[in-house]
Write the structure tokens for this entry.
Amino acid sequence: MKTRRSTVITLATILLILINLLNGLANFLPDSNPDSAPLFVEYGILVLAVLGLVAAFGLFTQRRWGMLLAISVSVLGACLWIGGIPSNFPLIKGYSILLVALNGLIVALIVLSFVRRSTATEGVREVS
């Protein structure tokens, strides 16, 4: 039996994959700035990128752990990137604002889908 995946979850999965691929690949770009981010931040971004791809797989296959991991990775990613907003470099500032906003959008989409699904099942229970 095929279960239908909602468009909201598909959109959240695609955004999660794109954000985590960008984060993971941006870690390997050459850095000419001697005052780059601390080492734990760079490794944290890399670990979050891998966890985000695992979460995207779990979210795409409609697993509960995938939803919880996607929310956790998005919140931690937003907290990690919020430190770049007061930067003096406009490119870093814009990239940080974009990633914080997209991580917030992913959390909102997942929670919206979960609430909509739970209210739909409550309506079915009341009718029965």
